[in-house]
Amino acid sequence: MFINHLTLGWKPFFQQQLTLDELPSTVAARVTAIHRSHIQVLTPEKTFSIDTALCAKLQPLAVGDWLLFDATELHDNARPLRRLSRLSLIARKTAGEQVGVQPIVSNVDTLFIVSSCNQDFNISRLERYLVLALEAQVTPIIVLTKSDQCTTIDDFVAQASKLHPNLIVEVCDARDLNQLQGLQAWCKPGQTIALVGSSGVGKSTLINSLCHQQVSTQSIREDDAKGRHTTTARTLYVMDSGGLLIDTPGMRELQLLSSEEGVQNVFADVEALITNCRFNNCTHENEPGCSVQQALTANQLDRRRWKNYQKLLKEQRRNAETLAQQHQRNRQLGKLYRKIKQEKQSRKNINDE
Ligand SMILES: Nc1nc2c(ncn2[C@@H]2O[C@H](COP(=O)(O)OP(=O)(O)OP(=O)(O)O)[C@@H](O)[C@H]2O)c(=O)[nH]1
Ligand SMILES: [Zn+2]
C-alpha cells in the first residue's frame, strides 16, 4: 500500500505548526516505538532509530508523536529539532512521591475499548476506559469480542450502550475479519487507533485479523540497561484498510490500574480468611470470632497488607455503580463529549481558515 504523510496520520493541525522556512527544509517523522535506549521513527520513505539521549529535551515522548527533522538528516541518531503539539494524548498517572503523568500514546483518533462477552465483562472497567478516552480527546468505541461464545449478546450490548447515549458498541468474533466490517469506518487511511482491554479479551486477535500479520513475528529483542534481553512488542501496525494501529506495552499495562480481579488475585488468601469469620457481616474490627483479627494477632497476616487490601477494596467499591452515580457520571460524560466536540469544531475552523 502507498504510504505518504497523510496515511501516516499527518493532518493540517500538524502542518500549520511549521514555519514557512521549515516547510521545505524539514521532514516530520512519527514515533513508532519507544525503548529504553532508543526511539524508532517512521517517515513515508524510511524508518530509523535515534538514541534516547538525543531526545532528552523533548521528553517525555509518546508513541504516535510527530518529531521534526532537518530534511538532510534522516538517518540513525539524527537529532530531532522539536516535537509537534499533540492532537490527543493518552497518559497514565505515575505513582511515587509526586504524582506525575506519563504519556503513552498520542495523536490517536479512536480508542477501541475491548471486552469479551463473558465473565471478563465489567461495566465499571469499561466506564473507566471510557473516561480515559474522553479525557484524552479520543473517540471511544466499545468492541465486544467472543460473541460466538455466548448465547445472547443483547444484555452485554444493552449494558455497554447505557454508559453514554452516543456510545458506539460493536460486537464480533475477533477471529473473523468478516465480522469486523463495523470497525472499518475507523480504520481508514490516516486514522490512528489504539486498543485497551484486559488480558485475554482478544486484542492481539483483533490486530491479527485487521492487520493480516502475526503480532508474535513482529517482536524485536533488545538489551535492557542491565544487559538482559527483553522482548518488546513492535508498536505501530499498518492495517489492511490503511489505518494505523498502535499496540504498546504501556497501553496493555493500563489495565493494571483498573483491575478488580487484581485485588482478588493478589489478596486471595485474605479473602479466604474473611470467609472464616464467625459473622457474615464482620467488619473485622472487634467482633468475636474474626479470623482476620486472629491472623493479625498471630502475625500470620501483615498489617500493612491488610490496610492496603482495605484501601484497594474501598477504591473498587467507589467505582461500583449505583443508578444515581451512573446518572451523575453520564451527565459529566455528556459535558465532556460536548466540550470535545466544541474543541474539535474550533480546531477545524482554525484549519479551514
Ligand atoms: N472464540 C473466540 N475466541 C477468541 C476471540 N477473540 C480472541 N479469542 C481467543 O482468546 C484468546 C486470547 O486472545 P488474545 O488476542 O491473545 O487476547 P489479548 O487481549 O491480546 O491478551 P493479552 O495479550 O494478554 O493482553 C486466544 O486464544 C484467542 O484465540 C473471539 O472473538 N472468539
Ligand atoms: Zn472478621
Automatic annotation (TrEMBL):
Cofactor(s) the record lists: Zn(2+)
Secretion signal, residue range per the UniProt entry: none
Amino-acid positions noted as binding Zn(2+) in the UniProt annotation, renumbered to this chain: 277, 282, 284, 290
EC category name: hydrolase
Domain named EngC GTPase: residues: 106-252
EC number(s) per entry: 3.6.1.-
Major subcellular location class: cytoplasm
Chain coiled-coil ranges: 306-353
Residues binding GTP: 145-148, 197-205
Keywords tagged on the record: Coiled coil, Cytoplasm, GTP-binding, Hydrolase, Metal-binding, Nucleotide-binding, Ribosome biogenesis, RNA-binding, rRNA-binding, Zinc
Cofactor note: Binds 1 zinc ion per subunit.
Quaternary structure note: Monomer. Associates with 30S ribosomal subunit, binds 16S rRNA.
UniProt cross-references to NCBIfam families, sorted A to Z: ribosome small subunit-dependent GTPase A (TIGR00157)
Protein name: Small ribosomal subunit biogenesis GTPase RsgA
Species, as recorded: Zooshikella harenae
Source taxonomy: Bacteria, Pseudomonadati, Pseudomonadota, Gammaproteobacteria, Oceanospirillales
Gene: rsgA
